[in-house]
Amino acid sequence: MSDYARRPRRKYCAFCKDKSEYIDYKDAQMLRKYMTDRGKIKPRRVTGNCAQHQHQLSIAVKRAREMALVPYTVPVVSGKIEGRRGR
Fold this sequence. Notes:
This protein is an all-alpha fold. It is about 35% helix and about 0% strand. The protein has four helices and no strands. The termini are far apart.
């Protein structure tokens, strides 16, 4: 093995980079970028947001869910037809 271990690239907070003061809950397209396909909020280690902006983001997503701009969950279509017993 080599002495040079490959480290992952550092993620930077997109909101700090843009110097945005406020995360708008009405911007559903932007909020979807920080949500999984199932509708969950992505964690900081995945998005690279700082703690302050991640907190503001989670509040904005929750407000957008309350106003029905983004869904709480997305229905998942399962490949199973029957349960485990009906093999």
